Amino acid sequence: MSNSSTLDASAQVPGYASAHSSSAAELASLKIGLRAALRQFPDFPSPGILFEDILPIFADPALHESLIRSLELHILEAYGGQKPDVIVGLEARGFLMGPSLALRLGASFVPVRKQGKLPGPCVTQSYQKEYGEDYFQMQEGAIKPGQKVIVVDDIIATGGSAWAGGEMIRKMGGDLLGFIFILELEFLKGRDKLPAPVYTLLSGQA
Ligand SMILES: O=P(O)(O)OC[C@H]1O[C@H](OP(=O)(O)OP(=O)(O)O)[C@H](O)[C@@H]1O
Ligand SMILES: Nc1ncnc2[nH]cnc12
């Protein structure tokens, strides 16, 4: 498998424990700045929805760097040292961090798009989300059987979008290592729908 490698060689060497705790401290400090940047908009895009806006993170290069570094630190520590072959980003906000995270990790980036946007034969999956029904697509063959895949997006609400992405990856024979989000709307219990470990960087609406 291209790009697959193990990272736990560091576990064999003296000093690993202190390296581990220093990355935990780095992660904790990065999260404080990221959390403070988020904005909320009541009743968008429809009444009753409290919309979480992550765009201020990308407006500030230091916060943008903090975000990508935080996600990289998580991936290097999690998944038993397995590195992903592919980062899959969900349209549209998963495209904001997916490609730069993939580049950091030496992984491929593959998009999941809304129906009708991708050329050529596609895999299609319908899904329900917090405010409606939609269809996602991936190009056939975008994931090779056995490739290790991580799905990224900004927010998990009902979990419908991430579930649909996971389904298409499963149909193509991918090995789902996990799902990563900036924020979780915990009260919607979206993570219960997902078939692989879920990591959210920041705590969200409980
Ligand atoms: O867990 P769920 O209930 O599926 O909701 C989460 C999804 O909803 C939002 O995207 P949206 O579909 O609004 O599209 P956009 O990113 O293109 O604006 C968000 O960026 C996630 O992709
Ligand atoms: N409350 C919310 N804020 C931002 N994006 C969302 N996607 C689904 N629910 C959302």
UniProtKB/TrEMBL annotation:
It holds the Pfam family Pribosyltran. It comes from the Eukaryota. Keywords: Cytoplasm, Glycosyltransferase, Purine salvage, Transferase. It is found in: Cytoplasm. It is an enzyme of class 2 (transferase). SUPFAM superfamilies: PRTase-like (SSF53271). One of its GO terms (cellular component) is cytoplasm. Residues 67-175 form the Phosphoribosyltransferase domain. GO terms for biological process: adenine salvage; AMP salvage; purine ribonucleoside salvage. Catalyzes a salvage reaction resulting in the formation of AMP, that is energically less costly than de novo synthesis. Homodimer. This is adenine phosphoribosyltransferase. It comes from Penicillium canariense. The lineage of its organism: Eukaryota, Fungi, Dikarya, Ascomycota, Pezizomycotina.
